[in-house]
Amino acid sequence: MTLLREERRPDGVALITLDRPAQRNALSLEMLQALSAALARAQDARAVVLLAEGPAFCAGHDLRELTAARAEPDGGRGFFTRTMAACSAAMRAVVEHPVPVIAAVEGIATAAGCQLVASCDLAVATPAAKFCTPGVDIGLFCSTPAVALSRNAGRKQAMEMLLTGRLVPAEEAAALGLVNRVVPDARAAALELAAGIAARGETTIRMGKAGFLAQEGRSLQEAYDIASAVMVENLMAADAREGIDAFLNKRPGKKQ
């Protein structure tokens, strides 16, 4: 059974498409494991674009699968634990991927689906896209989506989404910082962003993303120490040597 599709473009951009449209791309345990594996296979990409088949981007965890696990002798605890561990691993695989991961959202993204969008480095959405963390409506607070959501939206805005479960339209999601912008065609916009990133120096992009993640949440001094060390290494790299020389000599740069 196909859970997702993978494609590599000539420019080095990797496309990963969630492909369970009948289940609204719900994140079953197998789907989460497949996503982590696909991201691992895209370690050598220049950028990654995350897409979805069908009218929904992702409806979160597979509630039918979780409910079926309650019939197990432990009431489902073991399966729930494995699923949450797989979910955390998949989200970390997005965040910690060496190159930028871009979400193209053209439908609803709820609960862990919203978490997936928030975990991406960049996200674009069509006006039809909507976002929510509706666990409270079914007695299940969206605690793991809260991790990614609170790192994108402001604290009070994130708490409102988590406490009320209300649907947030695309334009509001952009204002909250959950997506970068609202566009007529999310796929085209995401591919354009990815192509622009792929055209830059690979070492620069990889070093830059790693440095950005490393300084987040640190004290001001620690952040500058980390960023300064990254800048030194970046200056020593061929990307910067060639780029600066081309700029100073007013000639086209050579892609590294």
Please describe the structure with a list of short key phrases separated by commas or semicolons.
256 residues, six-stranded mixed sheet, alpha/beta, 11 helices, Lyase 2-enoyl-coa Hydratase, Chain  A, domain 2, 2-enoyl-CoA Hydratase, Chain A, domain 1
Strand order of the largest sheet: 1-2-3-5-7-10
Number of strands: 10
CATH class value of the largest domain: Alpha Beta
Give the percentage of residues in beta strands.
15-25%
| Proper CATH architecture of the largest domain | Alpha-Beta Complex
User: What's the alpha carbon Rg, rounded to whole Å?
Assistant: 19 Å
Q: What is the distance, rounded to the nearest whole angstrom, between the alpha carbons of the first and last residues?
A: 39 Å
Q: Could you give the order of the helices and strands?
A: EEHEEHHEEHEEHHEHEHHHH
> Major sheet: size, sense and barrel closure?
6 strands, mixed
**CATH evolutionary superfamily of the largest domain:** 2-enoyl-CoA Hydratase, Chain A, domain 1
Number of domains: 2
Task: Categorize the overall geometry.
Answer: globular
Structural class: alpha/beta
The number of helical segments is 11
Give the averaged pLDDT, no decimals.
96
- Under CATH, the topology of the largest domain can be stated as 2-enoyl-CoA Hydratase, Chain A, domain 1
What is the helical fraction, as a range of percent?
40-55%
- Poorly predicted runs are none
